[in-house]
Amino acid sequence: MTKARLLRLSVVLVSVFMILLIIVYWDNVGTAHFYLHTSFSRPHSPEAIPGITAGGDWEALPEVDEFLAKLLSSSLKQNSSTSRKTEQLLVQGSSKPVVSNLEENVRGYDWSTHNARNSLDQEKLQLERQRTLREFCANSSFAFPTKERSFDDIPNYELNHLIVDDRHGIIYCYVPKVACTNWKRVMIVLSESLLDQGVPYRNPLDIPREHVHNTSTHLTFNKFWRRYGKFSRHLMKIKLKKYTKFLFVRDPFVRLISAFRSKFELENEEFYRRFAIPMLKLYSNHTNLPTSVSEAFGAGLKVSFSDFIQYLLDPRTEKMAPFNEHWRQVYRLCHPCQIDYDFIGKLETLDEDAAYLLQLLKVDRLLRFPPSYRNRTASSWEDDWFAKIPLAWRQQLYKLYEADFVLFGYPKPENLLKD
Predict the structure, then answer these.
(1) Mean pLDDT of 164-170
(2) Shortest CA distance to 166 belongs to which of 223, 88, 95?
(3) DSSP 3-state assignment of 339?
(4) Neighbours of 298 (CB within 10 A)
(5) 112-139 pLDDT, tens per residue?
(6) Where are the transmembrane segments (predicted)?
């Protein structure tokens, strides 16, 4: 009898020790914060809007994933009370923060309200956007570079645009020139990854731009290897299955105009030295250029939109280095055929899309999405900007960005591609 009791006691102690060992180990690699409380937790079918149904369907996960997910989800009850306290704290934040950044003061914000009755039928809109993306990713007759790669084939450095918020189970792929500054601000507030005098930021617009774009502020997929070692890809896949994944896109040609305006029409020392000087030398035959952007602007030396287009089309550009993120194609930044996004927003419908997304994420009580710029680059400007660009260049440029047009449902700009 005594031996049987000792045996049972030994089994219990060994089991408890193993569980504690696993918990401590995963806590050391940062996975104790791997919260799975997201409304998009159930695998979805093409016939349903992903994420509308909440629940914990573990059947689609392999055994190892299932074990990790169940183990880690046990922390939800403990975290729920903390989340509620955080929500109460954040909701007290000011509804209209003071804008201190120079660029944002110059541009100004549109604080006008939007009539809810005029909002789009977001549920059907999301279904259509996702269906378009999936159909063209599956269409073997529509080809573009990197389309056939698997997720495992994507190098870590190409995953640096995927920002993770473990507190709410969200993954955001940021696309420069598509409201990414403000979406990064939202991610900082939600993840509480940045403090102001020891307190997490409560309002997105309170966060200075220099902190928003500091890469150390965000947990991105390309940092997983340093944090999780050999488990990095495994954890990426678990989070991609269980977290809500979203991105925002924009008409590709309008995005190029916006990038040009931002980086070459305003004084930007970094972009002047890295890009403007080579462009002025190669395409405008300038020599002995000033070393600073202020001197160049003072002398009237600026990159033209034509110079910029030539640079994009020049085959030497990609051979020297991949496109800068501000004009790199979205399919290269966010890998939409390898990652099954739950929500696809567009800058053209930013206000409606942002409000709907925050609702679906169940964080709309915590914050509001920052308002739009009043003078946002408009699609109606395309004709004027491309008027002096030769037809052959426009056609080549479309081929360069065709995948972004097609995958995200933007119509082919026929008026720019024909005489």
Answers:
(1) 97
(2) 223
(3) coil
(4) 11
(5) 444 443 455 999 999 999 999 999 999 9
(6) 7-26
Count of structural domains within the chain:
1
C-alpha 101/C-alpha 370 separation (Å) is 14
H-helix or E-strand spanning residue 395: helix 391-407
Range of the domain at 222: 116-251+327-383
How many C-beta neighbours within 10 Å does residue 333 have?
Answer: 23
Residue 285 inside a domain? The answer is: no
Q: Which residue type does 150 have?
A: S
User: DSSP code of 220?
Assistant: B
**170: helix, strand or coil:** strand
Can you give the pLDDT at residue 70?
54
Q: Would you say residue 21 lies in a domain?
A: no
Number of H helices, E strands in the chain: 20, 6
Closest by CA to 280, choosing from 250, 295, 301, 252, is: 301
CB within 8 Å of 355: residues ≥ 6 apart: 119, 364, 369
> 205 with 97: CB under 8 angstroms?
yes
Q: Are 170 and 244 in contact (CB under 8 A)?
A: yes
Residue 302, C-beta contacts closer than 8 angstroms, at least 6 positions apart:
264, 265, 276, 296
Place of tokens 């280095």: 321
Cα separation of 31 and 286, whole Å?
54
Backbone angles phi, psi at 389, to 5 degrees: -90, 125
From the centroid of its chain, how far is CA 159?
A: 10
Residue where the block lists tokens 């070692």: 229
Domain for residue 395, yes or no? Answer: no
- Contact between residue 206 and residue 97 where contact means Cβ atoms under 8 Å apart: yes
Q: What is the distance between the alpha carbons of residues 367 and 356, in angstroms, rounded to a whole number?
A: 13
DSSP state of 104: H
Instruction: Kindly state whether residue 358 falls inside one of the protein's structural domains.
Output: yes
Show Cβ contacts of residue 212 under 8 Å, excluding neighbours closer than 6 positions.
181, 184, 185, 188
**Nearest CA-CA partner of 206 in 195, 216, 222, 217:** 195
Q: Where do runs of H (alpha helix) occur along 284-349?
A: 293-298, 305-313, 315-320, 330-334
Q: Is 248 helix (H, G, I), strand (E, B) or coil?
A: strand
Instruction: State pLDDT tens for residues 224-238.
Output: 999 999 999 999 999
Identify the residue whose tokens are 């507030």. Answer: 189
* Amino acid residing at 331: Y
Q: Output DSSP code: residue 285.
A: -
pTM over 0.85: no
Q: Give the residue among 326, 301, 299, 292 at the shortest CA–CA distance from 311.
A: 326
